[in-house]
Amino acid sequence: MSGFANYEPETDRRAPGAEVVTRPAEENDLDACARLIVSRTGGSVDGRRRRLLGDLHDPGRYSAVACVGREVVGYGGVIWHEMTSADPPTMAPTGYYLVGLIVSPDWRRHGIGELLTVDRMRWTAERADTILYFANLANGPTLDLHKHLGFTELTRNFTFPGNPLKPGTGVLLQAPLKNHH
């Protein structure tokens, strides 16, 4: 099992009448976000919650949630990454990166990933001209989503701090943003 959603590009199972709202994450959302993330990545819910709490207070990071009613059904983040002179030449460039998009299995294929990505791109457009993203080449759904939103491939030869992708399995993408800052 890859941890990715089954790839069904022609499927759209939006729930009739279910209103999905995206918004900045708040402290009372973090338990649900941590459970979503840990369900895919493993690890400790408490540890993940502490990291998410730190993200809420970091001006270079943004956490978004998707909610149906009061239920958090999706999460996605933005982080600022900065190259240093000590980094290898293959280090991903300085900029804002989309990270950690995850949607509850019961709510996949409802357009929630796109809503969260558009929300995070809007936040980043207030701060930068471009946004970056990396993904596993095997993750067809996310690659199609990001291509649809204007992302184009920069390279497959890159490194990123903490990136679990093995060399040759990932792709680094970038999209221009309508700059409003």
UniProtKB/TrEMBL annotation:
Residues 20-178 form the N-acetyltransferase domain. The keyword Transferase applies. The keyword Lipid metabolism does not apply. This is GNAT family N-acetyltransferase. It comes from the Bacteria. Coiled coil: none annotated. Keywords: Transferase. GO terms for molecular function: acyltransferase activity, transferring groups other than amino-acyl groups. It holds the Pfam family Acetyltransf_1.
